[in-house]
Specification:
The strands form 3 sheets. Strands 7-8-6-9 form a 4-stranded antiparallel beta sheet, with helices on one face. Helices cover 42% and strands 22% of the residues. It contains 9 helices and 9 strands. The two termini are 25 Å apart. With 225 residues, the protein is an alpha/beta fold. It is elongated, with a radius of gyration of 24 Å. It has 2 domains: 109 residues, P-loop containing nucleotide triphosphate hydrolases (Rossmann fold, 3-Layer(aba) Sandwich), CATH 3.40.50.300; 58 residues, Alpha-Beta Plaits. Strand 2, helix 4 and strand 3 form a beta-alpha-beta unit. GO terms for molecular function: ATP binding; ATP hydrolysis activity. Keywords: Transport. This is ABC transporter domain-containing protein.
Length: 225
């Protein structure tokens, strides 16, 4: 427990115990001083609920209690299975900020989750698994940038005229709510086409795919294993 802390079922606590009792039972089992129990409850913001029975806890409070148990041994590595599952937006933000803080301290945090957009906001690196096999392992930024391909998004004061100019330059152009998505030419060529057409640009940036799109492409729509 001093090296690795884990949450496999963050809500599987004894409903009749008080929070402090639940933590002490686990601490006693691995020889951790009771003083640490108060520390981890404070760490996850449950100090005021220490003497409240777990059966009366909300789902978010139970998840916090699970994290407190995982932190008992002050581990360098944490393994968490669906830590934000079923939480309201406030609870999800708390989990994200808490885990990000642990990572910033130099700890390694592994999170298994089906909430792909939340993973994108939290993780530095991702491992995508399909049918029990790792299909890719890479930084989030690298995956999303690569999935965007050699495409750019451009917005102008006259998208219709710019669209015509880009097509004339051999580009593949798709109009969308954020502007034009352009493939087949690079950013410099987009700028040249706009200049030749007399169109002022408001935005020009590489296309960046969403992590969810990357996941669906890599797994063929399969669920996370």
């Amino acid at each position: 427990m001093g090296t690795v802390g884990a949450i496999v079922d963050g809500v599987g606590h004894h409903p009749g115990r008080k929070a402090i009792e639940e933590v002490r039972v686990n601490a006693r089992a691995v020889g951790i001083p009771f003083a640490r129990c108060d520390e981890v409850l404070e760490l996850v913001g449950l100090e005021a609920a220490a003497h409240k029975r777990v059966g009366a806890f909300s789902l978010g409070m139970r998840q916090r209690l699970g994290i407190a148990l995982a932190m008992l041994g002050d581990p360098k590595v944490l393994l968490l299975d669906e830590p934000a599952n079923g939480l309201d937006p406030q609870g999800i933000v708390w989990v994200r900020q808490f885990l990000r803080g642990l990572a910033d301290e130099g700890r390694t945090v592994f999170v298994s989750s089906h909430l792909i957009n939340e993973v994108a906001r939290l993780a530095d690196d991702v491992i995508v698994i399909r049918q029990g096999r790792i299909v890719t392992e890479a930084p989030v930024a690298q995956l999303t940038a690569a999935a965007g391909g050699a495409a750019v998004v451009v917005a102008s004061r006259d998208d219709r005229r710019l669209h015509e100019a880009l097509v004339a330059h051999g580009a593949e152009v798709v109009a969308g709510p954020e502007g034009l998505t352009v493939r087949g030419v690079d950013a410099d060529q987009v700028g040249d086409a706009a200049l030749a057409a007399g169109v002022a640009l408001r935005e020009l940036r590489p296309l960046k795919a969403e992590l969810e799109d990357v996941f669906m492409e890599l797994t063929g729509g399969s669920e996370i294993a």
